[in-house]
Design brief:
Layout: H1 2-11, H2 24-37, H3 50-57, H4 61-73, E1 77-79, E2 85-87, H5 134-146, H6 162-175, E3 185-188, H7 190-202, E4 208-213, H8 217-225, E5 229-236, E6 239-240, H9 242-248, E7 254-257, H10 271-284, E8 287-291, E9 316-321, E10 333-336, H11 342-349, H12 358-369, H13 372-399, E11 404-406, E12 413-417, H14 424-433, E13 439-440, E14 453-457, H15 466-474, H16 486-506
C-alpha cells in the first residue's frame, strides 16, 4: 500500500487548465507518463481509480479513462480488475532513472511489425518478397508514370484514383462477395490510413470500442491515440464472443473484428456469430470494422465470403490492404463504406493526406484488371503451402518437446506455443538479436489468458532453408521442463491432417 500512497501523492500534484497544451486527457497522460519514465512512479505502483482522479481534477470519468487507456496501449500501465490500475511491473527503468531501459512502446522497437528493416526470417506481416513479379511491376509503373498528363499533375482525388476504385469494386464483388460501387470505396495509406479515416469520421474522445482480445497491437494503439475507450472482448473457437461483448459493454460506437482469420489465433468467426453480431449492430446502431487482412490467403480451401457480404443493415465498413497481397511498401489500403456514410467520410478525407500518387494507384489497377493479381495469388498460395509444410516439419523436429507448433489456422503464420511461464517477449528479443523476426503472442493480449508463444511467418523462408532457421530458433528455447501435453499433441495431429489435405488440393496449382 505504500506504493499506492506514493502514487496518489504524485498524481495529486497534476495541474490542468487552459494554459496547458492539448486536450485534457492528453495532459493527464503526459503527466502520469512523465512520472513513470522519470522513476517517481515505480513499477508496481498503484494509480488512483478513474472516479477518484476524475473527482480530484474536476473532469469527466471518460477523460481519465482515455488517458489510462493510452498509457495501457503504450505498455506503461496494466489493469488488475478490482485491484485497480498499476504501473507495469515488467517495466525496467534505466540505471539513471531517466526512463525505461528499452525503447518507448510507441517508438521503433525490434519487435515492431512495421519497423523499417531488412526482411528477417519468421517476421510476420510480409508476403514472399522474393517471389514478387518485379519486372512486370516496374513495367506497369513506368507506363503509367509516362502517361502523366498536365491535368493529372494537380491535387489527386482524396478518395483515391477512379481507375483503382473501379478495379477494386469489380474484384471485391467476385473474390469477396461484396456488392459495392466505386463511389463507396476510399483508397487509403494502408490499414493504418483506413483506421485513421474511420476514427476521425466516426469516433469522439471517450467513445467505447469493442476489440478482440487478443488483437493486433497497432489497432489497439491507433484507437487509443484517437481517444477511444477500448473494451477487450475475448475470443473462443468461434471467434469474437458477441454475447460477452453485449453483456460487458452493450452501448459501444464501434467494433473491430477480423472474421476471416482472427489476429493472431487464426480461427474464423462462425456463421452464427456473424449473424448475431450483425443483428446486434443493426439494432444498436454500432459500426463494425471488418479487417480482412488475410482474406485472400486461406490455405485450407477457398477464401471465405466477407462479413460485409452478409450486411443487410449497412453497418459494416470493410477494410482491405495490398500489404499482404503485393507489398507493404506500397502503403495502399482501402475502405468500403455503406452508401449513407460516403458523404461524411468524403468530408473527412478531403482534409487528410491521400494515398500513393495516381501513377502507382493506376499501376495497381491495371495489375488487377489485366488478371495479374489472380495469377499472382494462385502462385503465392501454392508457394506458401510448400514453405509452410517444410517449416512445420523442421520446427517439430528441432523444437522436440520444448514447444508445440500450432498450424490449425495457419494463414501466413505458424504459432509456436511455449510452456506456461515462458517470457515470450524476452525470447523474441533474443531472436531479434540473432537476426530472426518472431513476434511474442503475449503482447497481443490485454486481459486474455492466451499463454506465451511466438508468431512465426513462413512466407520468406525457402523450403531449403527451413531446417537451418528452425534450428537457429530452437537453440534459443528454454530447456525442456515437461513433455507436451496430450491436448497439444492432438492439436498438432489435427493440424497435420488439415495441412496434408490442403497440400493435395493445391498441388500443381500454378
Amino acid at each position: 500500500m505504500a506504493q499506492g500512497g506514493r502514487s496518489g501523492g504524485i498524481i495529486e500534484g497534476i495541474t490542468l487548465g487552459p494554459s496547458q497544451a492539448g486536450p485534457v486527457y492528453r495532459q493527464i497522460h503526459a503527466r502520469i507518463r512523465s512520472a513513470i519514465t522519470d522513476g517517481r512512479l515505480p513499477p508496481g505502483a498503484r494509480l488512483p481509480s478513474w472516479n477518484s482522479l476524475a473527482a480530484q481534477l474536476g473532469v469527466a470519468r471518460g477523460t481519465v479513462k482515455a488517458a489510462y487507456d493510452w498509457l495501457a496501449g503504450e505498455g506503461l500501465v496494466v489493469g488488475r480488475g478490482p485491484a485497480g490500475t498499476i504501473v507495469n511491473p515488467a517495466l525496467r527503468l534505466s540505471p539513471s532513472g531517466d526512463g525505461p531501459s528499452g525503447p518507448s512502446p510507441l517508438a521503433a522497437d525490434p519487435l515492431d511489425l512495421d519497423q523499417p528493416a531488412p526482411v528477417r526470417p519468421f517476421q510476420p506481416g510480409l508476403p514472399a518478397v522474393d517471389a514478387f513479379p518485379r519486372k512486370l511491376w516496374c513495367r506497369l509503373v513506368a507506363r503509367h508514370a509516362s502517361r502523366l498528363t498536365e491535368a493529372a499533375m494537380g491535387y489527386p482525388d482524396p478518395a483515391g484514383d477512379p481507375e483503382l476504385r473501379t478495379a477494386l469494386a469489380t474484384y471485391l464483388g467476385v473474390a469477396r462477395g461484396i456488392a459495392c460501387t466505386a463511389g463507396q470505396i476510399f483508397v487509403t495509406a494502408g490499414f493504418a490510413g483506413a483506421l485513421d479515416l474511420i476514427s476521425r469520421a466516426l469516433l469522439r474522445p471517450g467513445d467505447r470500442v469493442w476489440m478482440e482480445d487478443p488483437g493486433f497491437p497497432r489497432t489497439r494503439q491507433g484507437l487509443v491515440l484517437a481517444g477511444a475507450e477500448l473494451v477487450p472482448i475475448p475470443v473462443d473457437g468461434e471467434g469474437l464472443d458477441v454475447r460477452r461483448g453485449m453483456a460487458r459493454a452493450p452501448g459501444v460506437r464501434l467494433v473491430v473484428v477480423t472474421p476471416s482469420h482472427q489476429a493472431p489465433l487464426g480461427m474464423r468467426l462462425s456463421l452464427p456469430r456473424r449473424l448475431e453480431l450483425l443483428r446486434w449492430a443493426g439494432a444498436s446502431g454500432a459500426w463494425i470494422v471488418e479487417d480482412d487482412y488475410y482474406g485472400e490467403f486461406r490455405l485450407e480451401g477457398p477464401p471465405l465470403p466477407a462479413l460485409k457480404s452478409l450486411d443487410a443493415s449497412g453497418r459494416v465498413i470493410y477494410v482491405g490492404t495490398f500489404s499482404k497481397v503485393l507489398m507493404p511498401a506500397l502503403r495502399l489500403g482501402y475502405a468500403v463504406l455503406p452508401p449513407e456514410a460516403v458523404e461524411r467520410f468524403a468530408a473527412v478525407a478531403s482534409c487528410l493526406a491521400p494515398a500513393q500518387a495516381p501513377p502507382i494507384q493506376r499501376a495497381v489497377a491495371e495489375f488487377m484488371a489485366a488478371g495479374h493479381l489472380g495469377r499472382h495469388l494462385r502462385r503465392m498460395r501454392s508457394l506458401y503451402v510448400r514453405r509452410r509444410d517444410a517449416l512445420l516439419a523442421a520446427l517439430r523436429e528441432a523444437c522436440d518437446d520444448r514447444a508445440v507448433v500450432d498450424a490449425g489456422h495457419a494463414g501466413m503464420n505458424l504459432l509456436l506455443r511455449l510452456p506456461p511461464g515462458t517470457d515470450d517477449v524476452a525470447l523474441a528479443r533474443r531472436a531479434a538479436a540473432a537476426g530472426l523476426g518472431p513476434v511474442p503472442l503475449s503482447t497481443w493480449a490485454v486481459e486474455a489468458g492466451c499463454g506465451p508463444g511466438l508468431l512465426l511467418s513462413f512466407t520468406n523462408i525457402p523450403v531449403e532453408a527451413a531446417a537451418r532457421y528452425a534450428q537457429s530458433l530452437a537453440a534459443l528455447l528454454p530447456a525442456s521442463r515437461r513433455k507436451g501435453d496430450a491436448i497439444g499433441r492432438q492439436a498438432s495431429a489435427r493440424s497435420t491432417l488439415l495441412l496434408e489435405g490442403a497440400s493435395r488440393r493445391y498441388e500443381g496449382d500454378g
